[in-house]
Fold this sequence. Notes:
Largest sheet: 2 strands, antiparallel
Mean pLDDT: 80
Strand content: 5-15%
Shape: globular
Number of helices: 5
Helix content: 40-55%
Number of strands: 2
Oligomer: single chain
Low-confidence stretches: none
Strand order of the largest sheet: 1-2
Structural class: alpha+beta
Order of helices and strands: EEHHHHH
Amino acid sequence: MSFGLGDVWEDEQPSQWQFVYVTFGPEGEDRERKVADRKELVKTLTVWRQETYSADPLGFLFDIQDIITDDGINLVAKISPSRLYRDGPDVITTELGETSEWGSHHAEGMFERTWKYDHGDSDKVPTYK
């Protein structure tokens, strides 16, 4: 990212121009997942949420949106794959502002489903503990 041009002055006249570059964040890391990839991932995570809700024996006590809201799913779908795979399921919990208890119940499942989406249903999902 360039902040612009700067003069290098000698005496009273500018003698040359120079660029000043400042980089934020790790080089080459995507800030967000590409828009084209998000729509299918949102569908995949919505199916995961339904499966998780259906499998919970106490599901009748709460609403499906209590697991994760639609806005939350959209937010998870924006997380760049490089950041997600570098930091593991904890990045999901942090991005959503959820508790560590929620993270231990749901973030790993979302991480696994996202990994399988990105890697064609690969069974080689890394573990983060």
